[in-house]
Design brief:
The protein is built from 3 helices and no strands. The protein has about 80 residues and is mainly α. Helix 1 crosses helix 2 and helix 2 packs across helix 3.
């Protein structure tokens, strides 16, 4: 349903971004069409998307020098 509308927009030259510097990709046009055609569905999707844990809320694993692959440890030079 919405894919045919996105295809029609692309055939007619696409849709510019807000700043007008480039054309939107198909996914961006799909969100735009969805927001215009069914605002309640768009709001529901966006609400569910906000509930996901952000990158900053996820557990982080510390990285040490031992984790570097392919690099020699300067302290181990036995020459």
């Amino acid at each position: 349903m919405w894919k045919s509308q996105v295809d029609a927009i692309q055939v007619c030259g696409g849709q510019k971004t807000v700043d007008g510097k480039r054309c939107r990709y198909g996914g961006g046009m799909l969100w735009s069409v969805l927001k215009a055609q069914d605002p309640n569905a768009y709001r529901e999707i966006m609400k569910k998307g906000r509930k996901r844990a952000s990158v900053h809320d996820r557990m982080r694993v510390p990285v040490t020098d031992d984790d570097l692959i392919g690099e020699e440890d300067p302290k181990d030079k036995s020459t």
